[in-house]
Amino acid sequence: MPSSLIGVLQRHCADAESACPELEPRQFTSLAEVLAQIPDPRRVRRYRLGSLLALCLVAVLGGATSLAAVARFAADTDSDLREQLGLTSSTPNASTLGRLLARLDGDALDDAVGAWLARYATDPVDEPGDTLVGLAVDRNTVRGSRTDGQAVHLLAAALHSCQTVIAQRQVAAKSNEIPAFVPLLDRIDLRGVVVADAMHTQRTHAGHVIAVGGHYLLVAKGNQKKLRKQLRRLPWHEIPLQARTAGAGHGRREVRRLKVCPVRPGLLFPHAVRAMEIKRRRTHRKTGKVETKTVYAVTSLPPEQASPQQLAELVQNHWSVEALHHIRDVTFGKDAPQVRTCTAPRAMAALRNLAIGLMRQTGWANIAAAVDHYRSQPHHAIAMLRLTA
Prior knowledge:
By secondary structure, the protein is an alpha+beta fold. Helix content is 39%, strand content 21%.
């Protein structure tokens, strides 16, 4: 194993579409130890927990979407790779892996993975004018986990810029994610972070974000009818266009036009400083169909901390987090594998989040290309992660 990851990252630059980040050698050295420190639920321990989780992660980096695929990867690896993973005697089968993942503490795994990714993916701002860090809170259903009509529902917090999940919690199937919002964000340092969302446009949530040093940019939808009515009555016709952004993807092109207005006294939302009107015009390339929609939002960011163009970028990047769903659904086949037992679906979701975060931080812009690379070159994944026996 090399003593530094810089050489490995530089080799990856030839395959990645974007430049590799400048990383210090210490940044990735603790990942194997973090995985090994997760509480081990087993009584009989033929394999070390860190080795089994490292095996699962390297397999997922190469596109494994099921426990059987992870077991096949383990069986097909050569002795050198198995030794680096700490599997010196034999290789675990799918049943062994399934029993382990089904009994893992899901909160502990999510906390370990999220904290590690947050530590290296975020750069909180302390001074006005620095880059704003956008955070999206989103619900995700693992449909392949469905049993007796119930599926696993996960609430995740993802960074806008790199579509990296840095916190995750499971929510009850018969409830919404609103009660889980504050516990989820309690695990994140929100200083200098802008929480952008629509479902969580709640007064208590806004107060919590402000109390811990963050800011919010929240869309007023049907869950805030009175607020939305107030925002619609603002004098938008008197305000000139202040920002315009455009994007394309998933067979459509979208143009967004933004206006910003100071809020009036009596607005039914705490800590709001400015209101926004965002007009979205979406054109479907195949059919030529045009859709238009007007969205209203409020933010706690004052003008000296965020210009209209910065607000437009935050809105655009928030909606671009939809690409994370596409990656998980298409590239990693999130809904296809029938992993259903206890915490196993949630554990596989955490490993997918970690794999995507690793790829983003290593400089990959095309996740499908990254999966192909690590499938054919698993020693690159092991070297990048410094997974040692």
